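User: Just a sanity check before I run the rest of the batch. Below are the C-alpha coordinates for the first item. I only need the designed sequence back.
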Protein backbone atom coordinates (compact mmCIF):
# COMPACT_ATOMS: atom_id res chain seq x y z
CA UNK A 1 0.00 0.00 0.00
CA UNK A 2 1.33 3.46 -0.84
CA UNK A 3 1.94 6.07 1.83
CA UNK A 4 -1.01 8.12 0.55
CA UNK A 5 -3.24 5.05 0.42
CA UNK A 6 -2.32 4.10 3.99
CA UNK A 7 -3.11 7.56 5.29
CA UNK A 8 -6.46 7.58 3.52
CA UNK A 9 -7.34 4.19 5.01
CA UNK A 10 -6.38 5.39 8.47
CA UNK A 11 -8.38 8.56 8.07
CA UNK A 12 -11.41 6.52 7.12
CA UNK A 13 -11.01 4.56 10.35
CA UNK A 14 -9.95 7.42 12.59
CA UNK A 15 -11.68 10.64 11.66
CA UNK A 16 -14.96 12.37 11.18
CA UNK A 17 -15.21 15.80 9.62
CA UNK A 18 -15.71 18.88 11.81
CA UNK A 19 -17.90 21.56 10.21
CA UNK A 20 -15.96 24.78 10.51
CA UNK A 21 -18.43 27.50 11.31
CA UNK A 22 -17.57 30.87 12.81
CA UNK A 23 -16.06 30.80 16.30
CA UNK A 24 -16.72 33.43 18.96
CA UNK A 25 -13.21 34.16 20.25
CA UNK A 26 -10.05 35.05 18.37
CA UNK A 27 -6.45 34.72 19.59
CA UNK A 28 -6.33 38.51 19.94
CA UNK A 29 -9.39 38.49 22.19
CA UNK A 30 -7.96 35.69 24.29
CA UNK A 31 -4.67 37.57 24.69
CA UNK A 32 -6.53 40.79 25.57
CA UNK A 33 -8.44 38.99 28.34
CA UNK A 34 -5.18 37.58 29.67
CA UNK A 35 -3.44 40.99 29.62
CA UNK A 36 -6.38 42.83 31.20
CA UNK A 37 -6.59 40.32 34.08
CA UNK A 38 -2.92 39.47 34.55
CA UNK A 39 -2.63 41.26 37.90
CA UNK A 40 -6.13 40.44 39.18
CA UNK A 41 -6.40 39.50 42.85
CA UNK A 42 -9.11 37.13 44.12
CA UNK A 43 -12.10 38.73 45.81
CA UNK A 44 -13.16 35.38 47.25
CA UNK A 45 -11.68 33.24 50.00
CA UNK A 46 -11.13 29.59 50.79
CA UNK A 47 -14.45 27.88 51.46
CA UNK A 48 -16.59 30.23 49.36
CA UNK A 49 -19.10 28.64 47.00
CA UNK A 50 -19.44 30.59 43.76
CA UNK A 51 -22.90 30.55 42.22
CA UNK A 52 -24.13 32.30 39.09
CA UNK A 53 -25.00 35.54 40.91
CA UNK A 54 -21.35 35.80 42.01
CA UNK A 55 -19.82 34.77 38.69
CA UNK A 56 -18.16 38.14 38.08
CA UNK A 57 -15.77 37.28 40.93
CA UNK A 58 -14.27 34.41 38.96
CA UNK A 59 -14.23 35.85 35.43
CA UNK A 60 -10.66 37.22 35.85
CA UNK A 61 -9.49 33.68 36.70
CA UNK A 62 -11.30 31.56 34.10
CA UNK A 63 -10.05 31.70 30.48
CA UNK A 64 -12.40 33.85 28.41
CA UNK A 65 -13.57 31.10 26.06
CA UNK A 66 -14.35 28.69 28.94
CA UNK A 67 -16.55 31.12 30.88
CA UNK A 68 -19.77 30.43 28.91
CA UNK A 69 -19.34 26.73 29.72
CA UNK A 70 -18.57 26.92 33.44
CA UNK A 71 -20.93 29.80 34.35
CA UNK A 72 -24.61 28.80 34.31
CA UNK A 73 -27.78 28.79 36.40
CA UNK A 74 -27.23 26.15 39.05
CA UNK A 75 -23.41 26.28 39.00
CA UNK A 76 -21.64 25.39 42.24
CA UNK A 77 -17.91 26.11 42.34
CA UNK A 78 -16.35 25.55 45.76
CA UNK A 79 -13.09 27.42 46.37
CA UNK A 80 -10.47 25.34 48.16
CA UNK A 81 -6.72 25.86 48.27
CA UNK A 82 -4.83 22.95 46.72
CA UNK A 83 -1.80 23.33 48.98
CA UNK A 84 1.67 22.11 48.10
CA UNK A 85 1.77 20.27 44.74
CA UNK A 86 5.53 20.17 44.40
CA UNK A 87 7.24 17.02 43.09
CA UNK A 88 9.17 14.63 45.38
CA UNK A 89 12.66 15.28 46.69
CA UNK A 90 14.33 13.02 44.12
CA UNK A 91 13.06 15.29 41.32
CA UNK A 92 14.03 18.44 43.21
CA UNK A 93 17.50 17.04 43.89
CA UNK A 94 18.02 16.20 40.23
CA UNK A 95 16.92 19.73 39.33
CA UNK A 96 19.44 21.25 41.74
CA UNK A 97 22.20 18.99 40.45
CA UNK A 98 21.68 19.28 36.70
CA UNK A 99 19.61 22.37 35.78
CA UNK A 100 22.59 24.72 35.43
CA UNK A 101 24.11 22.46 32.77
CA UNK A 102 21.10 22.38 30.44
CA UNK A 103 21.22 24.47 27.26
CA UNK A 104 19.04 25.23 24.27
CA UNK A 105 20.48 24.73 20.78
CA UNK A 106 19.91 27.17 17.93
CA UNK A 107 17.13 24.96 16.51
CA UNK A 108 15.38 24.74 19.90
CA UNK A 109 16.62 21.25 20.80
CA UNK A 110 17.42 20.62 24.45
CA UNK A 111 21.06 19.72 25.17
CA UNK A 112 23.03 18.45 28.19
CA UNK A 113 19.83 17.36 29.97
CA UNK A 114 19.97 14.53 32.52
CA UNK A 115 16.96 14.69 34.86
CA UNK A 116 14.78 17.06 36.90
CA UNK A 117 13.33 20.35 35.67
CA UNK A 118 15.42 21.55 32.71
CA UNK A 119 14.94 25.33 33.07
CA UNK A 120 13.99 27.78 35.83
CA UNK A 121 10.64 29.38 34.86
CA UNK A 122 11.13 32.35 37.20
CA UNK A 123 13.67 33.68 34.67
CA UNK A 124 11.33 33.53 31.66
CA UNK A 125 10.47 36.78 29.88
CA UNK A 126 7.12 37.49 28.17
CA UNK A 127 7.38 37.53 24.40
CA UNK A 128 10.49 35.32 24.35
CA UNK A 129 10.58 32.53 21.79
CA UNK A 130 13.52 30.89 23.55
CA UNK A 131 11.71 30.91 26.91
CA UNK A 132 8.59 29.54 25.25
CA UNK A 133 10.69 26.67 23.95
CA UNK A 134 12.22 26.20 27.41
CA UNK A 135 8.74 25.98 28.91
CA UNK A 136 7.80 23.36 26.32
CA UNK A 137 10.78 21.26 27.42
CA UNK A 138 9.88 21.79 31.08
CA UNK A 139 6.42 20.43 30.31
CA UNK A 140 7.86 17.45 28.44
CA UNK A 141 10.14 16.61 31.37
CA UNK A 142 7.83 17.38 34.30
CA UNK A 143 7.74 14.81 37.10
CA UNK A 144 5.86 11.70 35.88
CA UNK A 145 7.20 8.88 38.11
CA UNK A 146 7.49 5.75 35.90
CA UNK A 147 4.62 6.94 33.74
CA UNK A 148 0.84 6.63 33.66
CA UNK A 149 -1.33 3.52 33.46
CA UNK A 150 -5.13 3.71 33.12
CA UNK A 151 -7.29 0.62 33.32
CA UNK A 152 -10.67 2.07 32.37
CA UNK A 153 -11.05 5.07 30.04
CA UNK A 154 -14.31 6.38 28.66
CA UNK A 155 -14.28 8.60 25.57
CA UNK A 156 -17.77 10.11 25.80
CA UNK A 157 -19.14 12.07 22.84
CA UNK A 158 -21.55 14.63 24.28
CA UNK A 159 -23.81 16.69 22.04
CA UNK A 160 -24.98 19.91 23.68
CA UNK A 161 -28.66 19.86 24.60
CA UNK A 162 -30.93 16.96 25.43
CA UNK A 163 -30.19 14.40 28.12
CA UNK A 164 -28.50 11.00 28.47
CA UNK A 165 -30.46 9.06 31.09
CA UNK A 166 -31.40 6.37 28.57
CA UNK A 167 -27.86 5.75 27.34
CA UNK A 168 -26.55 2.28 28.15
CA UNK A 169 -23.64 3.61 30.23
CA UNK A 170 -26.20 4.99 32.71
CA UNK A 171 -27.53 1.51 33.40
CA UNK A 172 -24.24 0.51 34.99
CA UNK A 173 -24.21 1.51 38.67
CA UNK A 174 -20.42 1.71 38.56
CA UNK A 175 -20.58 4.72 36.22
CA UNK A 176 -24.00 6.33 36.71
CA UNK A 177 -22.93 8.61 39.57
CA UNK A 178 -20.31 10.35 37.44
CA UNK A 179 -22.56 11.61 34.63
CA UNK A 180 -24.95 14.19 36.03
CA UNK A 181 -26.52 17.15 34.26
CA UNK A 182 -27.65 17.31 30.64
CA UNK A 183 -26.13 16.66 27.23
CA UNK A 184 -26.85 13.89 24.75
CA UNK A 185 -24.43 10.95 24.74
CA UNK A 186 -23.83 10.00 21.11
CA UNK A 187 -21.16 7.35 21.60
CA UNK A 188 -18.89 5.97 24.33
CA UNK A 189 -15.56 4.36 23.52
CA UNK A 190 -13.60 2.35 26.09
CA UNK A 191 -10.10 0.99 26.44
CA UNK A 192 -6.83 1.01 28.41
CA UNK A 193 -3.80 3.30 28.20
CA UNK A 194 -0.21 3.17 29.34
CA UNK A 195 2.87 5.36 28.94
CA UNK A 196 6.22 4.31 30.44
CA UNK A 197 9.32 6.52 30.65
CA UNK A 198 12.75 5.02 30.10
CA UNK A 199 15.17 7.97 30.11
CA UNK A 200 15.79 11.10 32.19
CA UNK A 201 14.31 9.37 35.22
CA UNK A 202 15.05 11.27 38.45
CA UNK A 203 14.31 8.08 40.42
CA UNK A 204 17.02 6.04 38.67
CA UNK A 205 20.25 7.73 39.73
CA UNK A 206 21.91 4.36 40.34
CA UNK A 207 21.53 3.40 36.66
CA UNK A 208 22.41 6.74 35.13
CA UNK A 209 18.86 8.13 35.30
CA UNK A 210 17.55 5.64 32.77
CA UNK A 211 16.37 2.04 32.52
CA UNK A 212 19.38 -0.12 31.78
CA UNK A 213 17.96 -2.55 29.23
CA UNK A 214 18.30 -2.96 25.47
CA UNK A 215 14.53 -2.56 24.99
CA UNK A 216 14.79 0.94 26.51
CA UNK A 217 17.97 2.08 24.77
CA UNK A 218 17.64 5.48 23.12
CA UNK A 219 13.98 5.76 24.13
CA UNK A 220 12.25 8.52 26.09
CA UNK A 221 8.89 6.76 26.42
CA UNK A 222 6.53 4.27 24.82
CA UNK A 223 2.80 4.87 24.81
CA UNK A 224 -0.04 2.41 24.19
CA UNK A 225 -3.65 3.48 23.51
CA UNK A 226 -6.17 0.70 22.98
CA UNK A 227 -9.91 0.38 22.40
CA UNK A 228 -12.10 -2.51 23.49
CA UNK A 229 -15.57 -1.18 22.60
CA UNK A 230 -17.86 -0.53 20.84
CA UNK A 231 -17.62 -3.53 18.56
CA UNK A 232 -16.83 -1.61 15.37
CA UNK A 233 -13.51 -0.30 16.76
CA UNK A 234 -12.69 -3.13 19.17
CA UNK A 235 -9.06 -4.12 18.71
CA UNK A 236 -7.93 -0.74 17.39
CA UNK A 237 -4.67 0.24 19.06
CA UNK A 238 -1.84 2.71 18.75
CA UNK A 239 1.78 2.57 19.89
CA UNK A 240 4.11 5.58 19.93
CA UNK A 241 7.84 5.43 20.56
CA UNK A 242 9.45 8.76 21.51
CA UNK A 243 13.25 8.82 21.25
CA UNK A 244 15.50 10.55 23.76
CA UNK A 245 17.18 12.32 20.84
CA UNK A 246 15.02 15.48 20.57
CA UNK A 247 15.69 15.76 16.84
CA UNK A 248 14.60 12.22 15.99
CA UNK A 249 11.02 11.74 14.84
CA UNK A 250 8.73 9.34 16.66
CA UNK A 251 8.09 5.83 15.47
CA UNK A 252 4.34 5.23 15.56
CA UNK A 253 2.15 2.28 14.66
CA UNK A 254 -1.55 1.53 14.49
CA UNK A 255 -3.52 -1.67 14.36
CA UNK A 256 -6.81 -0.97 12.55
CA UNK A 257 -9.07 -4.07 12.43
CA UNK A 258 -10.33 -3.24 8.93
CA UNK A 259 -6.72 -3.34 7.66
CA UNK A 260 -5.90 -6.49 9.68
CA UNK A 261 -2.28 -5.46 9.94
CA UNK A 262 -0.01 -3.21 11.97
CA UNK A 263 0.92 -0.15 9.97
CA UNK A 264 3.23 2.77 10.60
CA UNK A 265 1.41 6.07 10.96
CA UNK A 266 2.62 9.50 9.93
CA UNK A 267 2.94 12.69 11.93
CA UNK A 268 -0.15 13.99 10.10
CA UNK A 269 -2.32 11.17 11.45
CA UNK A 270 -1.34 12.08 15.03
CA UNK A 271 -2.99 15.48 14.58
CA UNK A 272 -6.19 14.04 13.03
CA UNK A 273 -9.35 13.31 14.98
CA UNK A 274 -8.87 10.18 17.10
CA UNK A 275 -11.58 7.70 16.13
CA UNK A 276 -14.06 10.51 15.58
CA UNK A 277 -13.55 12.13 19.00
CA UNK A 278 -12.65 15.78 19.46
CA UNK A 279 -9.14 14.74 20.58
CA UNK A 280 -6.01 13.88 18.63
CA UNK A 281 -3.10 11.71 19.73
CA UNK A 282 -1.06 14.91 19.94
CA UNK A 283 -3.60 16.51 22.31
CA UNK A 284 -3.02 14.03 25.15
CA UNK A 285 -2.08 15.80 28.42
CA UNK A 286 -2.84 19.15 26.62
CA UNK A 287 0.18 18.47 24.41
CA UNK A 288 2.12 15.27 23.82
CA UNK A 289 3.78 16.03 20.51
CA UNK A 290 7.43 16.75 19.82
CA UNK A 291 8.46 20.29 20.86
CA UNK A 292 10.65 20.76 17.76
CA UNK A 293 7.65 20.33 15.45
CA UNK A 294 6.21 23.63 16.75
CA UNK A 295 7.18 27.21 17.48
CA UNK A 296 6.73 28.48 21.04
CA UNK A 297 6.35 31.87 22.68
CA UNK A 298 6.31 32.52 26.41
CA UNK A 299 3.28 34.73 27.15
CA UNK A 300 3.67 35.27 30.91
CA UNK A 301 2.17 34.15 34.19
CA UNK A 302 -1.51 34.03 35.09
CA UNK A 303 -3.38 33.05 38.26
CA UNK A 304 -6.29 30.84 37.22
CA UNK A 305 -8.96 28.69 38.88
CA UNK A 306 -8.50 24.99 38.20
CA UNK A 307 -9.45 21.56 39.51
CA UNK A 308 -5.93 21.03 40.80
CA UNK A 309 -6.67 18.71 43.74
CA UNK A 310 -10.01 17.05 43.21
CA UNK A 311 -12.17 16.16 46.19
CA UNK A 312 -13.44 13.19 44.19
CA UNK A 313 -11.72 9.94 43.35
CA UNK A 314 -12.93 10.36 39.77
CA UNK A 315 -14.44 13.30 37.90
CA UNK A 316 -18.13 13.98 38.49
CA UNK A 317 -19.65 15.89 35.57
CA UNK A 318 -22.66 18.21 35.78
CA UNK A 319 -24.11 21.32 34.14
CA UNK A 320 -26.68 21.91 31.40
CA UNK A 321 -24.59 19.91 28.94
CA UNK A 322 -22.90 17.56 31.41
CA UNK A 323 -19.43 18.87 30.50
CA UNK A 324 -18.27 20.58 33.72
CA UNK A 325 -16.53 19.05 36.78
CA UNK A 326 -18.49 19.36 40.04
CA UNK A 327 -15.52 19.84 42.29
CA UNK A 328 -13.15 22.03 44.31
CA UNK A 329 -11.42 24.82 42.39
CA UNK A 330 -8.12 26.33 43.47
CA UNK A 331 -6.25 29.45 42.41
CA UNK A 332 -3.00 28.32 40.81
CA UNK A 333 -0.15 30.32 39.31
CA UNK A 334 0.44 29.15 35.75
CA UNK A 335 2.93 29.84 33.00
CA UNK A 336 1.21 30.55 29.69
CA UNK A 337 2.74 29.49 26.40
CA UNK A 338 1.58 29.95 22.81
CA UNK A 339 2.23 27.10 20.39
CA UNK A 340 2.27 27.57 16.62
CA UNK A 341 2.69 24.45 14.44
CA UNK A 342 5.52 24.53 11.92
CA UNK A 343 3.74 22.11 9.60
CA UNK A 344 1.48 23.94 7.14
CA UNK A 345 -1.14 21.17 7.02
CA UNK A 346 -1.52 21.00 10.80
CA UNK A 347 -5.21 21.63 11.66
CA UNK A 348 -4.47 24.30 14.30
CA UNK A 349 -3.11 27.76 13.62
CA UNK A 350 -2.21 28.27 17.29
CA UNK A 351 -2.79 26.87 20.75
CA UNK A 352 -2.45 28.39 24.22
CA UNK A 353 -1.56 26.26 27.26
CA UNK A 354 -1.76 27.10 31.00
CA UNK A 355 0.89 25.15 32.95
CA UNK A 356 1.11 25.01 36.75
CA UNK A 357 4.33 26.69 37.92
CA UNK A 358 4.76 24.19 40.77
CA UNK A 359 3.57 20.80 39.47
CA UNK A 360 4.27 21.38 35.76
CA UNK A 361 0.81 20.08 34.79
CA UNK A 362 -1.53 21.72 32.28
CA UNK A 363 -5.06 22.81 33.29
CA UNK A 364 -6.37 24.58 30.20
CA UNK A 365 -5.63 24.82 26.51
CA UNK A 366 -7.38 26.27 23.50
CA UNK A 367 -6.84 25.81 19.79
CA UNK A 368 -7.71 28.11 16.91
CA UNK A 369 -8.45 27.07 13.35
CA UNK A 370 -6.69 28.28 10.22
CA UNK A 371 -9.09 31.22 10.03
CA UNK A 372 -8.09 32.38 13.51
CA UNK A 373 -11.40 31.40 15.14
CA UNK A 374 -11.71 29.42 18.34
CA UNK A 375 -12.15 25.73 17.58
CA UNK A 376 -11.48 23.64 20.68
CA UNK A 377 -10.92 24.24 24.37
CA UNK A 378 -9.61 21.80 26.95
CA UNK A 379 -10.07 21.62 30.70
CA UNK A 380 -8.07 19.04 32.67
CA UNK A 381 -8.87 17.86 36.21
CA UNK A 382 -6.19 16.61 38.59
CA UNK A 383 -6.24 14.53 41.77
CA UNK A 384 -3.32 14.25 44.20
CA UNK A 385 -1.84 10.75 44.49
CA UNK A 386 -1.25 10.98 48.23
CA UNK A 387 -4.87 11.87 49.05
CA UNK A 388 -7.15 9.10 50.38
CA UNK A 389 -9.78 9.58 47.66
CA UNK A 390 -7.18 8.82 45.00
CA UNK A 391 -6.32 5.53 46.65
CA UNK A 392 -10.02 4.68 47.01
CA UNK A 393 -10.69 5.32 43.33
CA UNK A 394 -7.78 3.14 42.33
CA UNK A 395 -9.08 0.27 44.42
CA UNK A 396 -12.59 0.60 42.95
CA UNK A 397 -11.33 0.31 39.39
CA UNK A 398 -8.53 -2.17 40.17
CA UNK A 399 -5.61 0.12 39.40
CA UNK A 400 -2.06 -0.97 39.99
CA UNK A 401 -0.73 0.51 43.25
CA UNK A 402 0.85 3.94 43.37
CA UNK A 403 3.51 4.09 46.09
CA UNK A 404 2.99 6.56 48.97
CA UNK A 405 5.12 9.64 48.49
CA UNK A 406 4.89 9.55 44.69
CA UNK A 407 3.57 13.15 44.81
CA UNK A 408 1.93 13.21 41.41
CA UNK A 409 -0.67 15.71 40.31
CA UNK A 410 -2.50 12.80 38.77
CA UNK A 411 -4.31 12.80 35.44
CA UNK A 412 -8.02 12.48 36.36
CA UNK A 413 -9.83 13.62 33.21
CA UNK A 414 -9.26 15.63 30.04
CA UNK A 415 -12.35 17.29 28.65
CA UNK A 416 -12.49 18.98 25.26
CA UNK A 417 -15.27 21.08 23.75
CA UNK A 418 -15.53 21.71 20.02
CA UNK A 419 -17.23 25.10 20.07
CA UNK A 420 -17.77 25.04 16.32
CA UNK A 421 -19.58 21.72 16.40
CA UNK A 422 -21.54 22.13 19.66
CA UNK A 423 -20.03 18.90 20.94
CA UNK A 424 -17.56 17.73 23.53
CA UNK A 425 -15.55 14.63 24.33
CA UNK A 426 -15.14 13.74 27.99
CA UNK A 427 -12.21 11.48 28.83
CA UNK A 428 -12.47 10.39 32.47
CA UNK A 429 -9.59 8.14 33.48
CA UNK A 430 -10.71 5.70 36.13
CA UNK A 431 -8.30 3.31 37.73
CA UNK A 432 -5.41 5.58 36.83
CA UNK A 433 -2.11 4.95 38.57
CA UNK A 434 1.59 5.75 38.55
CA UNK A 435 2.93 2.29 39.31
CA UNK A 436 6.53 1.23 39.80
CA UNK A 437 6.91 -0.80 36.61
CA UNK A 438 9.39 -3.51 35.70
CA UNK A 439 10.97 -3.89 32.28
CA UNK A 440 9.57 -7.42 32.11
CA UNK A 441 5.99 -6.15 32.45
CA UNK A 442 6.61 -3.26 30.08
CA UNK A 443 7.73 -5.55 27.27
CA UNK A 444 4.43 -7.45 27.45
CA UNK A 445 2.44 -4.32 26.60
CA UNK A 446 4.63 -1.76 24.85
CA UNK A 447 6.19 -3.96 22.17
CA UNK A 448 4.78 -3.44 18.68
CA UNK A 449 3.95 -7.15 18.53
CA UNK A 450 1.38 -6.63 21.31
CA UNK A 451 -0.88 -4.67 18.96
CA UNK A 452 -2.05 -7.86 17.24
CA UNK A 453 -2.00 -10.33 20.13
CA UNK A 454 -5.10 -12.43 20.29
CA UNK A 455 -6.45 -11.20 16.94
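Assistant: Here's the designed sequence for the first item:
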Amino acid sequence: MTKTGLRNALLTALAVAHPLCAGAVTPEEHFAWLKDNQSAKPQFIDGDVITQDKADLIRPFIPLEYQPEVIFDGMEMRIKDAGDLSPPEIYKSATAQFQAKVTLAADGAIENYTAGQPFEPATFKPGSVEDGTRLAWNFAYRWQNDGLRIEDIHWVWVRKGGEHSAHEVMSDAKYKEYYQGGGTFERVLTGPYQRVYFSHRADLAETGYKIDDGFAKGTEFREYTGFTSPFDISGTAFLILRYDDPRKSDDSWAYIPSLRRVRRISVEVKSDSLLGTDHTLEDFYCFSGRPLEHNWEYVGTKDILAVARSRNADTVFYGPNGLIPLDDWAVRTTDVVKMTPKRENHPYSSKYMYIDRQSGECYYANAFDKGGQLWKLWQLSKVWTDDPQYQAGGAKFKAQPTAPGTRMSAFQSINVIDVQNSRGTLVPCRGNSYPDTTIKDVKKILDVNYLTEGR
